[in-house]
Model the fold of this input.
Amino acid sequence: MLTLISAKNPFWNSEDEQQIHLTVRFAEIDEDLPFNATSFDPEQHGIDLYNRAKAGEFGEIALYAPPKTPAATQPETTGTQTIG
Done:
Protein backbone atom coordinates (compact mmCIF):
# COMPACT_ATOMS: atom_id res chain seq x y z
CA MET A 1 0.00 0.00 0.00
CA LEU A 2 1.24 3.49 -0.84
CA THR A 3 1.54 6.26 1.74
CA LEU A 4 -0.38 9.37 0.70
CA ILE A 5 1.29 12.73 1.30
CA SER A 6 -1.26 14.93 -0.52
CA ALA A 7 -4.22 14.88 -2.88
CA LYS A 8 -5.75 17.89 -4.59
CA ASN A 9 -7.81 19.18 -7.52
CA PRO A 10 -10.52 16.48 -7.53
CA PHE A 11 -12.93 16.35 -10.44
CA TRP A 12 -15.43 13.78 -11.66
CA ASN A 13 -13.77 11.90 -14.50
CA SER A 14 -16.90 10.07 -15.65
CA GLU A 15 -20.45 11.15 -16.30
CA ASP A 16 -21.79 8.44 -13.97
CA GLU A 17 -19.59 9.72 -11.08
CA GLN A 18 -17.76 6.42 -10.71
CA GLN A 19 -14.29 7.96 -11.20
CA ILE A 20 -12.62 10.87 -9.44
CA HIS A 21 -9.43 12.29 -10.93
CA LEU A 22 -6.91 13.74 -8.46
CA THR A 23 -3.38 15.04 -8.39
CA VAL A 24 -1.61 12.97 -5.74
CA ARG A 25 1.79 12.60 -4.12
CA PHE A 26 2.89 9.41 -2.41
CA ALA A 27 5.88 9.08 -0.07
CA GLU A 28 7.21 6.26 -2.24
CA ILE A 29 7.14 8.37 -5.45
CA ASP A 30 8.63 11.85 -5.09
CA GLU A 31 6.49 13.72 -7.65
CA ASP A 32 2.90 14.79 -8.22
CA LEU A 33 0.99 12.23 -10.26
CA PRO A 34 -2.40 12.13 -11.97
CA PHE A 35 -4.58 9.48 -10.33
CA ASN A 36 -8.00 8.18 -11.30
CA ALA A 37 -9.67 6.80 -8.16
CA THR A 38 -12.65 4.43 -8.24
CA SER A 39 -14.68 2.48 -5.72
CA PHE A 40 -13.81 -0.70 -7.64
CA ASP A 41 -10.05 -0.17 -7.94
CA PRO A 42 -8.09 -3.44 -7.54
CA GLU A 43 -5.74 -1.67 -5.11
CA GLN A 44 -6.94 -0.62 -1.65
CA HIS A 45 -5.25 2.81 -1.87
CA GLY A 46 -7.37 3.60 -4.96
CA ILE A 47 -10.59 2.74 -3.12
CA ASP A 48 -9.48 4.74 -0.08
CA LEU A 49 -8.69 7.78 -2.24
CA TYR A 50 -12.09 7.54 -3.95
CA ASN A 51 -13.96 7.33 -0.64
CA ARG A 52 -11.98 10.15 0.96
CA ALA A 53 -12.39 12.39 -2.09
CA LYS A 54 -16.12 11.66 -2.27
CA ALA A 55 -16.41 12.60 1.41
CA GLY A 56 -14.87 16.00 0.57
CA GLU A 57 -11.54 15.50 2.30
CA PHE A 58 -9.58 16.93 -0.66
CA GLY A 59 -11.98 19.76 -1.48
CA GLU A 60 -15.11 20.06 -3.54
CA ILE A 61 -15.22 17.73 -6.53
CA ALA A 62 -15.50 19.70 -9.76
CA LEU A 63 -18.18 18.72 -12.24
CA TYR A 64 -17.53 16.27 -15.05
CA ALA A 65 -16.51 17.87 -18.34
CA PRO A 66 -16.53 15.57 -21.37
CA PRO A 67 -13.28 15.48 -23.33
CA LYS A 68 -13.09 17.84 -26.25
CA THR A 69 -13.06 16.12 -29.64
CA PRO A 70 -10.02 17.28 -31.58
CA ALA A 71 -10.60 18.73 -35.02
CA ALA A 72 -9.84 16.39 -37.88
CA THR A 73 -6.24 16.95 -38.88
CA GLN A 74 -5.71 14.03 -41.22
CA PRO A 75 -4.06 15.04 -44.48
CA GLU A 76 -6.09 14.63 -47.63
CA THR A 77 -4.62 12.88 -50.65
CA THR A 78 -5.68 12.40 -54.23
CA GLY A 79 -4.61 9.95 -56.88
CA THR A 80 -2.93 6.58 -56.51
CA GLN A 81 -1.00 6.04 -53.28
CA THR A 82 1.72 3.45 -52.65
CA ILE A 83 2.11 2.47 -49.01
CA GLY A 84 5.00 0.42 -47.68
Summary: Strands lie at 4-12, 19-26, 29-38. The chain has a mean pLDDT of 90. Helices lie at 44-54. The chain is about 15% helix and 30% strand.
